[in-house]
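Per-residue structure
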Amino acid sequence: MNGARSLVRTLVDHGVDVCFMNPGTSEMHFVAALDDVPEMRGVLALFEGVATGAADGYARMSDRAAATLLHLGPGLGNGLANLHNARRAHSPVLAVVGDHAVSHRPYDAQLQSDIETVARNVSTFVRTSASTPRLGADALDALAAAYGPPGSVATLILPADVSWSEGGAVASRPGLGPAAGAAPDVAVLEAAAAALRSGEPTALLLGGRACAGPLLDAVADLAHAAGARLLAETFPPRIGRGAGRPPLERLAYLAEFAAAQLEGVRHLVLLDAKSPASFFAYPGKPSDLVPAGCTVHPLVGPADDLVGAVDALAELAGTAAGGAPRQEAAVPGAPSGPLTAQAVCQSLGALLPEGAIVSDEGNTSGLFAPGATAGSPPHDWLTLTGGAIGQGLPVAVGAAVAAPDRRVVVLESDGSAMYTIQSWWTMAREGLDVTTVLLNNHSYAVLNMELDRVGAEPAGPRARAMLDLHDPDLDFVHLATGLGLHAARAETAERFHEELGRALATPGPSVVEAIVPPLL
């Protein structure tokens, strides 16, 4: 058994049976091992950023580690932005990066680079495997680091000769997988419970694991019983939403709006969330969004036992389970007239199927989507955790692979789509049930807003041209059909509603391009 086969077999035996890949010469023995270990599903991406973003989406929806296979340092560099987003999402991702054979390194070939330095930007674990017999054990060390807690990116660098040499051994480690984490600090727990009993304005700020599933229900009941507000971070990895689920208000992206949401709060209890801060620095405006006079209680971090902390907090605070309001079922009617971003989101709210997964990179044009879908059938919402654009389409690929029985909807903007548009080819190749709503306003609209907010000199025509996507206009229908998808364009609300309904009801991937005016 060579090293590559022992690596793939070790991963499959420990539940890692999907690898999103863009391989090169140094990874060919890993690729060949796919025929020897058919339980490993290889998903080909035409760009490394698609592979890494897909691994993030898969991990978010499956709560299992996903693997990527990347080619040398430049390949890892191409995938780095979406590994950054995965790091912020605390997604367990094992990045296998091929390297030159150890014997080849002295020749400083064209693709030689310092892979470990590149990997450290996003990884909690980096190791170059130096021995074929040890490769399986190295993989399990990396996988353990990826699971954490907290979940993270772990990078295993695989020299070509370690991969091709004989002497590989399948490694085994019982119990490898997600772990509960550490118990919360007793003093912080008691202080948070006292805050909930105090009668002073208190808010629970949720992030990460607290925003979906049974934990969201438990935390909502706790907040309701204590009379506390329930808030979420601006960009949590996954939010459980829709009819029958607790309404969860997210902090606004703009610092002024977020500060208004937090105004008057005297105690802020953090449950797998960070203390709120402005997304960027702005001249003359604070970066810290915690109100003056507010005490922050960092109860649970990403490495802590969230379930145990919530149970202990409810017991100490004397609150009972049950009773929190749930979102009532209510969907908007079909829109009519000119097509606007608001009409697109209204149509989405009317047609979103039960169990859908929404990968949201709609940016400014998607502002209306949360409100329009609040009462839609139960669904999951995936956000842009690390702020590095180009996430929406790849995360949808991974989510669809992880949950093949659910419809995935991508809210995508025109500028962001061009970063990882190769995702559409992978969707077509794999036959994934992904519907892309492409909001085309011919502009980097969010950057036009930021240009005005950062205090730069008044923008003239040359500056504005750098944020404009006209001349030539992007034609997403032709781009999508060229990559193997069915696609349609809509310029009226009625046509969009019709095309979206057809796309959601048709198996396989499709694109509905919505031509909308800029909001800004």
